[in-house]
Amino acid sequence: MIIGELVGTYLMLGLGLVSSIFINYNLYPKPQNRLLTGAYWGLSIFIASIISTAIFGTANFNPIFSFLQAFNHQISWLTMLGEVLTQILGAWLASATVQKLWSKYLNTMPVNLNFFATVPRHLNKWLNNFTWEAIGTFTIVINSQIMDDVRLAWWIKTIWSSILITAVITTVAPITGAALNPTRDIVPRLFFTRTYDKKMAQWEYSIIPIAGPIVGGIIGLIVASFL
Q1: With contact defined as beta carbons under 8 Å apart, do 195 and 99 qualify?
Q2: What is the DSSP letter of 73?
């Protein structure tokens, strides 16, 4: 299971970041289309989920969902800790791989945090960004809790969840960059800090991609318990 989390997180984040860099490079200096943003991240999550579930029987790349599973007694707290650590490792390896393989493209452009971590449309609108991160995560958590009780083939549930996540990302990405996962934002942001420029890493904002998904996840768990 833990190996599955490592491989899945690596694939999800690696594919997503590669797509982001490729599209940014080819469209630069034009702004990205939000439909493209949602589509390539949704596709990245779908591919990683299919591969990870088919081979390892798990597709959990978000520490919030690991916590929810531990809270619901679906996994042990020790397993949760192992999943979170491997998610962090997978995210770091994905960031390093992308930087290494695409360095020639990255070197032709100005240093851009958006190639790694999430960048909101309005950096100073913390409450608005926090709210959208929470709403997006809340929606995904509700779906996850419902899918646990639905008797369908795993691949059908994976396809549906990927479509939903794509729709959520497409909605939230133009506003916050759509982290919806602390590991997806903080680890690449740390990698960016160590590899490029600490002053451009916007660490003062980084609390939002952490707090928003956590609060949204907790509220989602509470609401799901009444459904």
Answers
A1: yes
A2: T
User: Scanning the structure block, which residue is given the tokens 């982290």?
Assistant: 179
Give the angle 24-41-206 at the CA atoms, nearest 5°: 80
Mean pLDDT of 173-202: 92
How many other CB atoms sit within 10 Å of the CB of residue 106?
20
4 contacts 51 by C-beta, under 8 angstroms: no
Residue entry with tokens 């709210």: 131
Q: Which long-range contacts (CB under 8 A, 24 or more apart) does 80-87 make?
A: 82/2, 82/5, 83/1, 83/2, 83/5, 84/183, 86/2, 86/3, 86/5, 86/6, 86/9, 87/5, 87/6, 87/9, 87/61, 87/62, 87/63, 87/183
The 10 Å Cβ neighbour count of residue 35 is 12
Q: Which residue has 């949602």 as its token pair?
A: 38
pLDDT at 128 over 90: yes
Q: What is the pTM of this model?
A: 0.90
